[in-house]
Design brief:
Blueprint lengths: L2 H4 L34 H80 L3 H20 L3 E3 L12 E8 L8 E6 L2 E3 L2 E4 L1 E7 L4
Parallel strand pairs: 2-6
Antiparallel strand pairs: 1-4, 3-6, 4-5
Helix pairs in contact: 2-3
Length: about 210
């Protein structure tokens, strides 16, 4: 072997084109949005004031509406009260007129009876008949308005319609039986106008 074969040989190194540095992109850096402006404190305060003013206006309108309704109701009530008072007064006056109108014939008969006594000297029997007639006529007139006498004599004593003026021992009557009437009691419809004043039987002492 020759000396020339033992010498190292140089091996050529070739660089590939793919390892070339990347080309710079033509596009520039990505755009960045500018920072938002901070909120204006004056605008926020103005918005709150506007909202409050709107609420105040709404409440004021509601208050005005309610006040107007209240005044209307009050006026309607006053008109109703005046109408009721007027109708009540008219009813009372009409009722009084009806009662008086029914009693006028009784007064007429009293006047006729008195005139008859003065001019003709009527006897006691005729006078009694005249008074009984007037009494019956008066009772009939009052009965038209619902007046009724309270039954007393012979009835059991009822504290709701009787007023005991005295008591008398009696063997002929049961205890607490009304045996005499001093003043007649009257009802007007269901209402007691006055109780009857009576005498009541009691048990005789032994």
């Amino acid at each position: 072997m020759s000396k020339q074969d033992n010498e190292p040989k140089e091996i050529p190194i070739e660089f590939s084109d793919s390892e070339e540095e990347p080309e710079a992109s033509d596009a520039g850096p990505a755009p960045v949005d500018p920072p938002a402006d901070p909120p204006d404190p004056a605008e926020g305060e103005a918005g709150r004031l506007a909202a409050l003013q709107s609420q105040v206006d709404q409440l004021t309108q509601e208050r005005s509406t309610l006040l107007d309704q209240l005044l209307r109701r009050q006026a309607e009530f006053e008109n109703y009260r005046r109408r009721v008072d007027r109708e009540r007064a008219e009813t009372y006056a009409r009722s009084r007129a009806e009662v008086v109108l029914e009693l006028l014939p009784v007064i007429d008969n009293f006047e006729r009876a008195l005139a008859s006594l003065e001019h003709s000297g009527s006897d006691a029997k005729s006078l009694r008949q005249g008074i009984e007639l007037i009494h019956r006529q008066l009772n009939d007139a009052l009965a038209k308005f619902g007046l009724e006498p309270v039954e007393s004599v012979g009835q059991a004593f009822d504290p709701n319609v009787h007023e005991a003026v005295s008591a008398e021992p009696s063997e002929e009557h049961e205890e607490n039986t009304v045996i005499a009437e001093f003043q007649r009691g009257y009802r007007l419809g269901e209402k007691l106008l006055r109780p009857a004043k009576v005498k009541v039987a009691s048990t005789p002492e032994k």
